[in-house]
Write a structure and sequence with these properties.
The chain has 11 helices and 16 strands. It is an alpha+beta fold and 378 residues long. Among the domains are: 93 residues, T-fold, CATH 1.10.3980; 129 residues, Roll (T-fold). Strands 2-3-4-5-6-9-14-15-16 form a 9-stranded antiparallel sheet. Strands 1-7-8 form a 3-stranded antiparallel sheet, with no helix packed on it. A two-stranded antiparallel ribbon has the order 10-11. Helix 9 runs antiparallel to helix 10. The two termini are 14 Å apart.
């Protein structure tokens, strides 16, 4: 998905410029102060006013990519530079707590079997993941990380595991092997010891990739609300928006056409969604960017934790609108596991959810189904 702002290319080019400098051999020979000045200048370039109604766009680095936050400043006393510092602090805490790529994070240390003192974010994220596992009947399982590793979509480069390996992994992974409430498992010093939880056995690893970006958007949005921001669009890979854009209309977000090779957001657009100003999360999950082909068979990154295997059906992408980005993120993934018919039923039966489901027809043509409250304007 891609949002529209006249400064988007300017921000992206500024970031790319700094990244290129960092990767050149001459950069290593510059004094540290010069390097810091370059990054400081880049940070200032990443805060710029949109042309109408006193809006600013703030951008930076997060979770292996970049984020963009667009906000209206009416009634907000905090300067943009301080707002950016607050956003970066939140994203840093998420990285050091929940990232599976950061080997020093709480999550990584817990997965290695180390005792940790979990913070509030760690415990609340686990509780949310546990609740989603129960609500989806096991379709969304954040404790199924070893399955993603085995298929090469987690933190390893493995692929095409044998049936025996899949069976062995499924016997020991999943939320069913973990307690309902981690807080109740803390010792007197506030420590969480995996060895105690497992009673001598091994615990399944946790992986929050299915909800982490949506959660990040929600946490940043909550921070902005606390500053008095009413009009916002938070894009951290997944989107939360509220209020109006600089033109005084609802935020518009492009839904990409889910075809293999469409790797650039906004390059090939299927349609445009427009908000009505209500706070909501909007997230797309699709199978056209993370997959591999072996012997003519496509294996996607969407794995059904109930079978241990990548899904195979005609649902190409699910764009979900929900009350928050965490829920939208989770349900988008769940829909991609369920397939078209079950996903459509899930949306129809859930009054707080709206969706655009894009699917393939025999012969390769593409069609969509949208729920009544999903405002697809083109």
């Amino acid at each position: 998905m891609r949002t529209k702002c006249k400064y988007a290319n300017f921000f992206a080019n500024s970031i790319i410029f700094v990244q290129i400098l960092c990767r050149t051999s001459s950069m290593g020979n510059l004094p540290g102060k010069i390097i810091r000045l370059i990054f400081a200048a880049a940070a200032l370039l990443c805060i710029s006013s949109c042309e109408k109604r006193n809006y600013v766009a703030i951008t930076g680095f997060a979770q292996g990519g970049t984020y963009t936050v667009k906000i209206g400043l009416a009634g907000v006393d905090t300067p943009p530079t301080a707002i950016k510092a607050g956003i970066d602090s939140i994203l840093h805490e998420i990285d050091t707590t929940l990232s599976g790529y950061n080997k020093g994070s709480m999550l990584s240390r817990f997965n290695r079997g180390e005792a940790i003192r979990p913070n509030r974010l760690f415990l609340e994220t686990y509780a949310a993941a546990r609740a989603l596992w129960e609500e989806t009947g096991g379709v969304l399982d954040c404790a199924a990380a070893p399955l993603f590793d085995a298929w090469g979509f987690g933190f390893t480069t493995d692929s095409l595991p044998s049936g025996e390996k899949i069976s062995a992994i499924m016997a020991s992974c999943g939320m069913k092997h973990l307690p309902r409430n981690l807080g109740e498992a803390l010792d007197g010093d506030g420590r969480l010891d995996p060895a105690t939880l497992s009673a001598g056995g091994s615990l399944p690893n946790l992986n929050y990739n299915a909800i982490a970006q949506g959660l990040s958007a929600d946490l940043v949005a909550s921070y902005l609300k606390g500053l008095g921001v009413k009009d916002m669009l938070v894009d951290i890979g997944e989107i939360f928006c509220s209020g109006l854009n600089p033109d005084g209309t609802g935020w518009t977000i492009a839904i990409d056409r889910p075809v293999d090779g469409n790797d650039t957001p906004g390059a090939d657009v299927f349609g445009i969604w427009r908000s009505d100003g209500s706070p909501c999360g909007l997230v797309t999950s699709a199978n056209n960017r993370k997959f591999y082909v072996r012997d003519g068979v496509k294996y996607s990154h969407t794995i059904d934790p109930r079978t241990g295997r990548p899904v195979s059906h005609n649902l190409l992408s699910a764009t979900i609108m929900a009350k928050d980005a965490t829920t939208a993120d989770a349900i988008a993934t769940a829909c991609m596991v369920l397939g078209l018919d079950a996903a459509r039923k899930l949306i129809i039966d859930s009054p707080d959810l709206e969706a655009c489901l894009i699917y393939s027809l025999p012969g390769g043509s593409m069609e969509s189904w949208t729920s009544p409250g999903f405002n697809l304007i083109q």
